[in-house]
Amino acid sequence: MTYRSHADLGGQDVPGAIVQEPEGEYFHAPWEPRVMALVVATGPTGISNIDMNRSARETLPNYRDLSYYEIWLAALEKLASEKGVLGDTPPRPKQVLRADAVLATIKKGSPASRPASRPARFSVGDHVRTAAVQPEHHTRLPAYARAKVGVIERVHGVHVFPDTNARGLSESPQWLYTVEFAARELWGESAPAPHSIISVDAFEPYLEPA
Amino acid sequence: MSEHEHHHHEEHAQRAPSALELRVRALEARLTEKGYIDPAALDVLVDAYQTKIGPRNGARVVARAWFDPEFRRWLLQDATAAIASLGFAGRQGEHMVAVENTPDVHNMVVCTLCSCYPWSVLGLPPTWYKSAPYRARAVKDPRGVLKEFGVELPPATRIRIWDSTAEVRYLVVPLRPAGTEHLNVGELANLVTRDSMIGTGLPKS
Prior knowledge:
The complex is a heterodimer. Chain A is α+β, with helices and mostly antiparallel strands. Chain A has helices spanning 32-42, 50-58, 68-82, 102-108, 162-165, 183-187, and strands spanning 113-114, 127-130, 149-159, 174-182, 197-203, 207-209. Chain A contains 6 helices and 6 strands. In chain A, α1 packs across α3 (68-82) and α2 (50-58) crosses α3. Chain B is mainly alpha-helical. Helix content of chain B is 49%, strand content 12%. Chain B has a two-stranded parallel sheet. Chain B has a two-stranded parallel sheet with strand order 2-3. In chain B, α4 (55-67) crosses α5. Chain B starts with a helix and ends in a 7-residue tail after the last helix. β5 (197-203) of chain A pairs parallel with β3 of chain B.
């Protein structure tokens, strides 16, 4: 089956204005805060991980027709039902977020960094070429940055690899880099802002020396 | 619409929840019944992101960086630790990078693949940040996007766009407005807007 993300929007021709919003206006319907809280609260239960969430969201066939909290809701429904959580014999939750633990849990976060088991392949200043082929699963290299030459700008350490974690395979931690591209490399000579620089954060398997 | 009709309409809206409202209530009820959710935890979460964790946190970080050169150096070198020292560590801010605007470079942050955003310092993202038009255009036509926000930069300013494609989260440190040398940290923080920390706006002057 072909994997198709509907969320990879960088550089696409998307109509519509960017509608500004005052600070402090976080929700636009009474159910939206509830969805935000449900998604955060189900985190520790083991229904999914952050990469599975993103994969479930980006593959919703009607992704582009939904508001963001509708996307979150539909993906949570999908994951909960796939895990059998809503059935008659649901698996036991790994951990349940209790009210008195919420603030400490937020403060703690869930770092994606992991210990390094081998040295980084690239260093700051190295020229790299990004992978050309879109894999048949969740990945985090945007289409606009495929088969392009950029420069390593930062080395972030070793982080959980979304490509495997999203499929429940393993975390397979990988070195993570910020890779800078010249606007002309990405958009050609007619780039609207030809002197701008664009970066993505790319995992080592996405990169080859250039 | 008369005052009475308007009132009646609102009452009706309260009595008849939307289809989405019903879906969310059903899901919450099922997850609660199956032991996956503590509904009281949802109340605390909503309150935290409505009243405690928002862009005023980030504004204090930026104001401190403007005020205190030592803190500024630390922030640019190790943003996660510097921000944690002010008490704003946590979820969706586990791996922070602060990027500083200069007269020559203007930074702007986007997540073209979803909605990655530094919650610990800016709170929940505005709708436009998650919207298709912003995500599509920010990487390709940043000057066009800035224009929509009413921001025009000198032609020589280089625009630097950070697409948050992994778990690193970016905070823009805007240029300190001129004539603010006499202000204290609290007064400086009042000048720092949410948009100026995403890079789609400038601080108040």
